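Hey all, quick one. A colleague (J.T.) asked me to put the adenosine-5'-triphosphate job into the tracker so the inputs and the structure tokens live in one place instead of scattered across chat threads. No bug as far as I know, just bookkeeping. Sequence used:
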Amino acid sequence: MTGAFRSLVRSRSGLLGLALSAVVVAATLVSLVWTPYDPGAVDPRASWAPVSGAHWFGADRLGRDLFSLVLAGARTTLLVSLAATVVAAVTGTLLAAAAAVTPGWVRAAVGYGIDVLIAFPTLLLAMVLVAVHGASTLTAVLAIGLGEGFFVARVMRAEMTRVLAADYVLAARAGGAGTWRILYAHVLPNALPTLTVLLSLVMAIAVLAEAALSYLGYGVPSSTPTWGRMLHDLQTQLTIRPQVLVWPGLAIVATVLGFNLLGDGLRDAGDPKARRT
Amino acid sequence: MRLLEVEDLTVRFGDSTVVAGVRLSLGAGERLGLIGESGSGKTLTALAVAGLLPPGAAVTGSVRFEGSELLGRRERAIAPLRGAGIGFVFQEPLTALNPLMRIGAQIGEPLRIHRGLSRRAARGAAAELAARVGLPDPERIVRAYPHQLSGGQRQRVGIAIAIAARPALIVADEPTTALDVTVQAEILRLLTALVEEEGSALLFISHDLAVVAQVSRRLAVMRAGRVVEEGPTLDVLRDPREPYTRQLVAAARATSWNPQETPS
Ligand SMILES: Nc1ncnc2c1ncn2[C@@H]1O[C@H](COP(=O)(O)OP(=O)(O)OP(=O)(O)O)[C@@H](O)[C@H]1O
Ligand SMILES: [Mg+2]
């Protein structure tokens, strides 16, 4: 893995992705122990305070420090997008494997199931979950994770079917390998490059989806700062003082870009052919 | 009891019959060459023997290995035989190896499956097998990936995998077709020497008469899914009865090869 890491750092875009992702992770960790102000603290005197030494990113109408809000928002964004990506990876891969290796009618049923479920927009899923369980971080994670999980399942089903048709899978079966060994030793490693890129995309989509859900009130509780809610709260200022929208927007763009580049870099780094030894 | 007895083997895809009533028989330690033009059903016959046919293939007839019937067995009941009872060498040494798995892990895989060897023990055994198939610097090569090897070296790996769990029958499906001529000869020598040492039987598939004649004294000729001629290699070559076999012999002669030189 050290060889893979070296080749990740050596590729320029991989390094940028790693750096951007590292900044988001660092911001999250820092926000746990320190923010310049309490992100929820209202200060009428600081209403729409400009960028200054006291307020690095300025302040909103209620005088809340925007830098503190962006830092604290990173927490929610990273938590929700990471957890949703894990949910998507697990459900997607399990469904895809079931659809790819099970015989006959099970395969067909799982395949149709995925196609039906993928037609449900994440938002609809979220509304159903909220109706049942109420709006919470867990609801957001499950809604985004499952919604993206079906998308992952569809792509990975095709990818696993492709790998299963490879000569080396036939050769492994000819050596006595059973279904489990075929899946974990041959199919998964060879499908992993696609999964990596897919998950970096899912993570990026999850950042946006979390923002959208928060915006609509289906996401995390309204007391929790998120970049999506910041965008929502600040959007009325678009024509008056657009500079305040730059911060949450930039944070979202940097995170999405970082995850995507990191995914591409990881895919290339995992390929022994592309790697220099 | 014969090691392998194939009777009336028929393989269909929908309503096209691609293997039609094939009959083959191999005793322990015997070698049989299976020859035929492209598309004549050689590969499907070989795969059918170990239950490895692609989905969509319907198979009937009988395949008895060491006296017990294999056709119609569940996957779970036939998998223990693959690798341990019947070993396969494939045509394309590059695509038959997992590009992301180290050579040692691939050679050791049948041993992990059938002998329950630990990862570590399998790697040690893999290095020994790599040495046996004449790979240079075995300790280093077991840590390499397939793309770092030459075509001939990859096929040596393929042979090491096939013999790893010491099967009583080795099926080699055109193992030298993808290699250039000088490498072909080396691989053939290696394969026949190892089969000799191990005392395994060999089902050797090829579309090249000259190659088959070097490997085996008995020969079956396939055409359009049927075995059209079978017998001692020299007899078939000297006095081919089927027009198709005559064509094959004529083609081999045209490439300046003389059946009289065949070792008997
Ligand atoms: N999955 C499949 N579906 C339908 N037809 C198939 C399939 N696999 C093989 N066939 C057909 O079965 C016939 C025999 O194929 P097979 O691979 O056994 O030929 P072969 O003798 O090994 O030829 P070659 O020398 O080219 O390897 C061919 O006509 C082929 O088109
Ligand atoms: Mg073939």
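Adding what we noticed when we looked at it: The pocket of adenosine-5'-triphosphate (ligand 1) is lined by residues B 13, 18, 36, 38-44, 54, 56, 207 (CB under 6 Å). Residues 2-269 of chain A form a domain with the MetI-like fold fold (CATH 1.10.3720.10).
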